[in-house]
From TrEMBL:
Residues 1-23 form the signal peptide. It is found in: Cell membrane. Belongs to the RLP family. This is non-specific serine/threonine protein kinase. It is a single-pass type I membrane protein. One of its GO terms (biological process) is defense response. It holds the Pfam family LRRNT_2. GO terms for cellular component: plasma membrane. Keywords: ATP-binding, Cell membrane, Glycoprotein, Kinase, Leucine-rich repeat, Membrane, Nucleotide-binding, Receptor, Repeat, Serine/threonine-protein kinase, Signal, Transferase, Transmembrane, Transmembrane helix.
């Protein structure tokens, strides 16, 4: 019984297994070409080609599609499979192939010339691989080719002239290769082009005027292509353009004032980092679909008169590093008013634009989604409007490098999402509002170089993410609150220098175990340097100069092994210069104008005259000869210790 059952099962299996034969009823050439393809794959981490075996018809292999009737391979779609290998010339035998999609794998070697035999090929996508060599001239024989996507490879040489024979081409995507030889004018002959995307190639040359013949062009991106000259005006005739980027080139000249009216469908416009001059075209007001406007780092000048009120989808505006202000007109930032209906705005960068007015109150009407606002390095003056507290979506706010006066608005405490706040280099006065302690997400706070008075608010101790705090160069007084020294998050920078802080340095400073830079120079701090400072073992720079510290440098500082710069100058420190300093890998140490006594060490940093200073310590001796100090007299004290005086 068991035997019978077994036989039955075997027979059944045998009968249902597909017949294995050398003929597939299709084209054996296709079969052989696919086997060659597989044989060149050296790594297939997910077993994508496991089904490419003799018990399965090749038309059913993973990623392969055949025509229903003729059973010839029409599509190979193996995108993002982690395949490593090269592409064999045999692929050129798949004469019915319409699509070859190998995007995002690790194919290397050259793109075989034999692909030129694929006269039915419409889609060739080899992007995001490691193909090298040139773009084969023979591809020009693929007369039905619509999409040529070779971005993200290591292709060299120039775009072959013969490509212009491909009269059906709609997509040319060659970004991020090493192509040279300019963007060839003959490409203008391919009137079908809709997407031309070649950013990140060292092409050189200029943008050819002939590209203005691409009446169907929707996307044009040629950023970082080392292009110079001006943008030919014919490009602005391409009224279907939705995406236009020539960022990071060396383009000169000005933009046509009617540009925005000529390109009404623009969604992104990226011309950052060129040498463009003239007005930013006011007609951009007409680009009602615009989402991204990047005109930063150019020489644009004249008043910015874009009316943003119709640009309902805009989410990023970069105009930084231009000369947009400074015309002495009170309304040079009137465009801010028009931004109030842009409810998707997330980024507004107006850094270094030469604006010279008071910040309009309407800044507070900007989108609740506004996350990044940079107004730094202009000449904005007057009070900061209270309305700034309405921008509750802000994560980054830069107001530094202006001439703001008055107080820091207490409404700043409403910006609960703020991670970075900089107001350095203004003329802000009054107290630092306690409300900064409400900014629980704060990572960096820079209020340096203002006229801020009073004490450092202990509420800053609530900011448990704070890793950089700079309050230097203000008029702050009283003790350093222990609460800020107890913030383990302070890992990067604590600068309280150039104030009038007094009292001793709290021993809690030893809690700053991860801090890299501690700068307390130019205050009235007094008392001993706390030995707990030796716990700050991440310190790279320690500046305690120009205070009233006295006593000795504590031996505990011998644990600060990573410190590269030490400044103890202009205090009342005494005792010997600690021997352990010789072992530190210091770039410099300043011990000048204290009252150190005894022997100057000779090793480590003390062996290089340009790296240390001991001036103004009248009781030192020894050191290396050029210092001209008296020799140390070694006195054997009663207790047996050697002492140098
Ligand atoms: C052949 O492919 C089929 C389908 O993926 C699979 O089930 C089978 O295990 C494969 N055979 C071999 C020998 O790899
Ligand atoms: C392998 O397959 C898994 C699950 O389908 C997927 O998450 C992973 O990204 C694949 N890896 C590669 C290299 O294709
Ligand atoms: C590329 O493929 C890998 C799997 O090999 C996948 O994890 C990754 O997400 C893909 N990248 C893109 C951009 O599709
Ligand atoms: C297919 O292509 C390869 C290489 O291009 C060639 O050697 C082979 O003879 C071609 N024909 C067949 C039927 O495989
Ligand atoms: C199979 O394809 C090859 C190459 O395209 C061609 O030379 C050959 O005639 C085809 N054979 C059949 C039976 O279709
Ligand atoms: C081929 O690759 C692209 C990415 O380049 C992908 O978006 C597309 O869906 C793939 N094509 C097919 C037919 O699956
Ligand atoms: C490349 O194209 C030339 C000219 O059409 C042709 O003679 C040559 O055979 C092609 N090379 C391959 C490998 O198909
Ligand atoms: C473009 O095509 C015209 C004819 O259509 C031809 O005369 C001209 O030489 C071509 N230009 C280039 C640069 O190939
Ligand atoms: C823009 O197109 C118009 C109408 O087709 C044409 O008259 C004009 O010469 C074109 N301008 C440029 C700079 O190509
Ligand atoms: C573009 O501007 C940069 C920086 O101002 C300058 O160094 C460069 O020479 C300028 N290039 C041209 C082509 O004007
Ligand atoms: C917007 O387009 C209209 C119609 O083409 C035009 O009259 C107007 O001047 C344009 N606006 C700007 C600011 O250029
Ligand atoms: C802007 O929004 C206000 C309502 O918040 C509306 O009254 C006004 O018409 C809008 N302006 C434009 C130009 O859409």
């Amino acid at each position: 019984m068991a035997f019978l059952l077994y036989s039955l099962v075997v027979v059944t299996i045998f009968l249902t297994t597909p017949t294995i034969s050398t003929s597939y009823g299709g084209n054996e050439t296709d079969h052989q070409a696919l086997l060659s393809f597989k044989s060149m794959i050296t790594h297939d981490p997910n077993g994508s080609l496991t089904s490419w075996n003799s018990s399965v018809h090749f038309c059913d292999w993973n990623g392969v599609t055949c025509g229903k009737r003729h059973r010839r391979v029409t599509v190979i779609q193996l995108e993002s499979r982690g395949l490593t290998g090269s592409l064999p010339p045999h692929v050129g035998n798949l004469s019915f192939l319409r699509q070859l999609n190998l995007t995002n794998n690790s194919f290397h070697g050259s793109i075989p010339d034999e692909l030129g035999r694929l006269s039915r090929l419409r889609v060739l996508r080899l992007g995001d691989n490691k193909f090298s060599g040139v773009i084969p001239t023979n591809l020009s024989a693929c007369s039905n080719l619509k999409e040529l996507s070779l971005w993200g490879n290591r292709l060299v040489g120039s775009i072959p002239k013969e490509i212009s024979f491909l009269s059906e081409l709609t997509d040319i995507e060659l970004d991020d290769n090493d192509l040279t030889g300019g963007i060839p004018p003959f490409l203008g002959n391919i009137s079908s082009v809709e997407v031309f995307s070649v950013s990140g190639n060292p092409f050189g040359g200029s943008v050819p005027d002939t590209l203005g013949r691409w009446k169907n062009l929707r996307v044009f991106t040629a950023g970082e292509c080392n292009l110079h000259g001006s943008i030919p005006h014919s490009i602005f005739n391409l009224s279907l353009l939705t995406g236009f980027s020539l960022a990071e080139n060396q383009l000169t000249g000005s933009l046509p004032l009617a540009m925005g009216t000529m390109l009404p469908h623009l969604v992104f416009l990226q011309l950052r980092n060129n040498n463009l001059t003239g007005l930013i075209p006011p007609s951009i007001s007409n680009c009602s679909k615009l989402q991204v406007l990047e005109m930063s780092i150019n020489d644009f000048n004249g008043k910015l008169t874009i009316d943003f009120s119709e640009l309902k989808d805009i989410y990023a505006i970069f105009l930084n590093d231009n000369k947009l202000g400074g015309h002495g007109e009170a309304d040079e930032m009137k465009f801010i008013d028009s931004l109030k209906n842009c409810s998707k705005l997330e980024i507004l960068n107006l850094n270094t634009c030469n604006f010279q007015v008071e910040l309009p109150i309407s800044i507070g009407n900007l989108s609740k989604h506004l996350s990044f606002l940079n107004l730094a390095i202009n000449q904005l003056h007057g009070n900061l409007p209270l309305s700034i507290g309405n921008l509750v979506g802000l994560t980054v706010l830069h107001l530094g490098g202006n001439r703001f006066t008055g107080k820091i608005p207490f409404t700043i405490g409403k910006l609960q999402n703020l991670g970075v706040l900089t107001m350095y280099d203004n003329q802000l006065a009054g107290l630092i509002p306690d409300a900064v302690g409400n900014l629980l997400m704060l990572i960096g706070l820079d209020l340096s170089t203002n006229r801020l008075e009073g004490h450092i608010p202990s509420s800053l101790g609530n900011c448990h993410h704070l890793s950089l705090l700079d309050l230097s160069n203000n008029l702050l007084v009283r003790k350093i609150p222990k609460q800020i020294l107890q913030l383990p998050s302070l890992t990067i920078w604590l600068d309280l220098s150039q104030n009038s802080l007094s009292g001793s340095l709290p021993t809690y400073v030893g809690d700053l175990k991860m801090l890299t830079y501690l700068v307390l120079s130019f205050n009235n701090l007094s008392g001993n340097i706390p030995s707990s400072l030796g716990s700050c073992t991440s310190l790279s720079l320690l500046f305690l100069d120009d205070n009233l510290f006295d006593g000795e440098i504590p031996q505990s500082l011998s644990s600060l092994k990573g410190v590269e710069g030490l400044d103890f100058a202009h205090n009342n420190l005494s005792g010997q210069i600690p021997q352990f300093l010789e072992r530190f890998l210091l770039e410099f140490i300043d011990l000048s104008y204290n009252d150190f006594v005894g022997k100057v060490p000779v090793l480590g940093v003390f062996a290089n005259r340009s790296k240390f200073s001991i001036l103004g310590n009248s009781r030192l001796c020894g050191g290396f000869v050029e210092l001209g100090l008296p020799k140390c007299k070694e006195i054997k004290k009663k207790n047996g210790f050697l002492c140098s005086l």
